Amino acid sequence: MPPDIVQIRLEIIIPHDKWLFKFNEKYPELNFYILSKFLVEDNVGITLFQIRGLSVKQFISDFKKQISKNSSQILFEGDDLVIMNIRVVDPWILNTLIKTELLILYPILIKEGKIRIEAITNRSKVDDFLSELENKGIKASIGRIGYGFKSTLLTQRQNEILNIANENGYFDIPRKISLTEFANNLNISKSALSETLRRIFKRLSDNYIKFSN
To answer: Residue range 112-117: average pLDDT?
Structure first.
């Protein structure tokens, strides 16, 4: 692997005048995640957020009072989870990512007033990104850096089984296919499939916990 390819975590301090900082500070017990970001027109972006925690209902009520309906859309609202689109003028992070061509990994965690970005990219793009943020008066730092790719999270077979399970409604509520039926379709024993699924969930949960902290 070329020596200038790095695996990196960047920590960006959210400017205090941004709505995201204000709500992140007011509701520190909530976990804010950016699931995707894209431009819809010049200098206007859409960000897909997932916000999870026990005080989600209170957050939603507060959010609706302060943010215009024209700039937000709630896609799902539950007792401890909300998924929403936010329309932002001058999307400072997105504009900087596009300008420096820095490709990042999703989801992005926002915690303690910081945006934590993960990327596997050229070191030069990271330096350009940090320089652009500095020019905007935004503080950022390197939280972690390494010169190796992440190992594949799931094996090819595990990934195949996970996708088949999802396509056949194994994770639906209620399930559209039982464990026995699923195992028969794969022509393996029920116990073997159960063990494979357990290993998949263990790897996914370990990875989630690792990169959420």
So the answer is: 94
Q: How many CA atoms lie within 13 A of 65 on its CB side?
A: 7
Range(s) of the domain holding residue 208: 156-212
Q: Give per-residue pLDDT as tens, 8-58.
A: 999 999 999 999 999 999 999 999 999 999 888 888 999 999 999 999 999
Are 45 and 113 part of one and the same domain? yes
DSSP structural state of residue 3: T
CA distance 178 to 145: 43
Whole-number Å distance between alpha carbons of 27 and 22: 9
Instruction: Report the candidate in 65, 75, 69, 8 with the shortest Cα–Cα distance to residue 36.
Output: 75
3 state DSSP class of 37: strand
Residues 37 and 74 in one domain: yes
Q: So what's the pLDDT on residue 203?
A: 84
Residues 101 and 33 in one domain: yes
